[in-house]
Design brief:
about 140 residues; single chain; 8-stranded antiparallel beta barrel; globular; 2 helices; alpha+beta
């Protein structure tokens, strides 16, 4: 490859990585300015077998939150329990923090066509094992 071709290859890779970082997890843009009231309700990820109920008083009930998955997406370990939740905005982007009593799980918050999504990356992000939770009333 010529010097000019290498230069364009490096520029192209940088642009792709920059766009990916802006789009966030799963290609969805990060949600901004999320308020507690927007998260209250029951969230489900059918493909992961996860149900998460967030109450206005800050209490949470979780069933089947995966903590380990095989590369094909099969859940091999999960946790369930009752506890508390809050929005953690201490980082660059807001996250949903759920304490099930068995541990704290951090969910990412995203938007897709105006709809709020709760996302969980399970294990190594390079394995791309994700669970996308949507409100129970959404299909």
């Amino acid at each position: 490859m010529s010097g000019r071709a290498w230069k364009w290859a490096l520029i192209s890779v940088s642009v792709v990585l920059s766009v990916s970082a802006c789009m966030g997890w799963g290609g969805y843009p990060p949600a901004k300015n999320v308020h507690d009231s927007q998260l209250v309700g029951t969230w489900r990820a059918r493909e992961c077998g996860t149900t998460l109920t967030l109450s206005p008083d800050g209490s949470a009930s979780a069933t089947g939150i995966p903590t380990e998955m095989e590369l094909d997406g099969k859940v091999t370990r999960d946790i369930s329990g009752d506890g508390a939740w809050e929005i953690d905005g201490s980082g660059v982007e807001q996250q949903l923090e759920v304490d099930t009593g068995d541990g704290i799980i951090l969910f990412d918050l995203y938007r897709d066509k105006g709809r709020l999504l709760v996302g969980l990356t399970v294990g190594d992000p390079d394995n791309m094992n994700w669970c996308v939770l949507t409100r129970h009333s959404e299909r």
